[in-house]
Write a structure and sequence with these properties.
Layout lengths: L2 E4 L9 H11 L4 E6 L11 H5 L9 E6 L15 E7 L6 H10 L3 E6 L17 E5 L13 H16 L4 E5 L7 H6 L4 E4 L1 H4 L4 H12 L4
Parallel strand pairs: 1-8, 2-3, 3-4, 4-5, 5-6, 6-7, 7-8
Helix pairs in contact: 1-7
The structure holds D-xylitol-5-phosphate and zinc ion.
D-xylitol-5-phosphate binds next to strand 2, strand 8 and helix 6.
């Protein structure tokens, strides 16, 4: 089943609880949590306390995307009963295998993300150990950017590598997904689709999520 993970980066933080209720009612599968430190990416978003303020307000699992340097220092902060994935960037981790082990040891599923300029080949040794591979389809740091089409080729290639090796990870795309390209993104082989501005910038958030989920299920 293809899953939609709206990114709260583009939500109205003054009514975050309400916005999250809307995406849940619309049928979203995960909440994508974009954490930025102003070092690994040129922007600062929010920390674990904002994410934790949602626990109990929604049953949706958290899909944590750490765009930060030295993520090992903060992994425990993002572990809650609702945390499903914690994803770190390949480019930010000197000891990536150790970091993935650390994530699993605290009870989350480890994910690894790669920037648009990072080749898939840099992941060959870690793929057997991760539950998620996040392919960035924009340069991380900001919502509302345009999707870089080469990311779709990477996803198709990754799906083939997964099949050839019987790996179990899910494939996620993040950045620039909207209603116009959602069908193409789905067909490229993506399992989890992140959408920020296209969901939270819509006039009717709940209906937009319902519409996107329908497209993912191939119903329209
Ligand atoms: C970019 C973030 C994305 C972003 C997606 O650095 O990782 O998750 O919020 O936003 P849109 O869907 O607006 O490109
Ligand atoms: Zn993200």
């Amino acid at each position: 089943m293809k899953q939609l993970a709206p990114s709260i980066l583009s939500a109205d933080f003054s009514k975050l609880g309400e916005d999250v209720e809307k995406i849940q009612r619309g049928g979203a599968h995960l909440i994508h949590v974009d954490v930025m430190d102003g070092h690994f990416v040129p922007n600062i978003s929010f920390g674990a306390s904002v994410m934790k303020s949602l626990t109990g307000k929604t049953e949706l699992p958290f899909d944590v995307h750490l765009m930060i340097e030295e993520p090992d220092r903060y992994l425990e902060d993002f572990m809650t009963p609702q945390t499903e994935f914690i994803t770190v960037h390949q480019e930010a981790c000197i000891h990536l295998h150790r970091t993935c082990q650390h994530i699993r040891s605290i009870g989350a599923k480890p994910g690894v993300a790669i920037n648009p300029a990072t080749p898939l080949s840099t992941l060959s040794e870690i793929l057997p150990f991760v539950d998620l591979v996040l392919v960035m389809s924009v340069n991380p740091g900001f919502g509302g950017q345009k999707l870089i089409p080469q990311a779709l080729n990477k996803i198709t290639e990754l799906e083939k590598i997964r099949g050839d090796n019987s790996y179990g990870f899910k494939i996620e795309i993040d950045g620039g997904v909207n209603r116009d390209n959602l069908g193409e993104v789905r067909d490229a082989g993506t399992d989890i689709i992140v959408a920020g501005s296209a969901v939270f910038g819509a006039d009717d958030i709940e209906e937009t999520v319902r519409d996107f989920c329908g497209i993912l299920e191939n119903k329209r």
